[in-house]
Amino acid sequence: MSRSDDAPTVIGISLVAAMVADVLHEGVGHALIALTTVAQSGIWSTVAWSSQYDSRLVAAGGTLVNLVAGILLWVALRSAKNASPELRLFLLLACAFNLFTGTGYFFFSGVTNFGDWEVVIHGMHPYWLWRLGLIAVGMASYYGAVLLVSMGLVQYVGVSRDDRSRWRGVTLTPYVSALVLMGLAGLMNPIGIQLVWQSALPATAGANCGLLWMRYYIPEGTIPRRGDENIGRSYAWILPAVLSSLVFIFVLGRGIVLRR
C-alpha cells in the first residue's frame, strides 16, 4: 500500500463498491426481474438467485444491469469535478466491478459452458458458434472495460501511471478486499458450498483480474484531469463499510426469501 493513501479507507471504499456490484447483479438483475416477470418467490443470496421459474431474460439480467450501472457510474465519475478523492475512487471502483463482471461473464460462460449466459444460449443452434460468439464478445468488451477503467484511474482519480507504489495500492487492495468479502459471504449461501468454487470465487477473482494488469494497457498520452489528492482517513467510509459487510456476509450471504 502506498504511504500516500490510507489503507483502511481504500479497503472500506473497495468493500462498498464490491457490494454494490453484487447487489445490482443478483438483487436487481436476477431477483427483481424474476419477480416482475415469471417467478412468484425465490431466494436471493450473494452468489445466486434461486427460484422455481426462470427465463433467458432473468439469466441475462444480472449482466445487463451491471453493464448499464457501469456506464452510468463512468458518466458520474466524469461529471464529479468537485468530488472528494474518496468519492471519485468509489465511483471508479464501482464502475470497474460492474463492467468487469458484466463483460467477463460472456467469456466465462463461453469457455466453461456454465453460468448465466449458458442459460441464455441453451438450445440455440449452432451451439458451438454461439459459444464462440460469447468468447469473442467477452474478450473484446473486457479489453474495452480495462482501457476505460485504467484511463479513469489516471484521469479522474489522479493516480499517475508512473507511481507504481500508489498504483498497486489502489488496484491490488480492492482486488483482495472484494475476493475476501465474496468468499466469506459465499460460504454462508443456502444452496451449497460448491457455489463458492463455481460462482463466488471465479466471478470475483477472474472477473476483477483486470485490476492487476490494466496499468500496462493505459493508452499513451493519458494524463490526470483532476487533482492528485491522496485518499485520506475517512470514517464516513470505513464504518458504513464494516457494518454493511457484516449484513452482506451474515444476512444476505445466508439468503433472503423474496415474494411478489
Question: Which secondary structure elements does this structure contain, and how are they paired or packed?
Answer:
Layout: H1 7-37, E1 41-44, E2 49-50, H2 56-79, H3 85-112, H4 116-121, H5 127-155, H6 164-169, H7 172-187, H8 194-206, H9 210-213, H10 235-252, E3 256-259
Antiparallel strand pairs: 1-2, 1-3
Fold and architecture overview:
The protein is mainly alpha-helical and 260 residues long. It has one domain (7-259). Helices cover 67% and strands 4% of the residues. It has helices at residues 7-37, 56-79, 85-112, 116-121, 127-155, 164-169, 172-187, 194-206, 210-213, 235-252; strands at 41-44, 49-50, 256-259. Strands 2-1-3 form a three-stranded antiparallel beta sheet. Strand 1 and strand 2 (49-50) form a beta hairpin. The radius of gyration is 18 Å and the shape is globular. The mean pLDDT is 93.
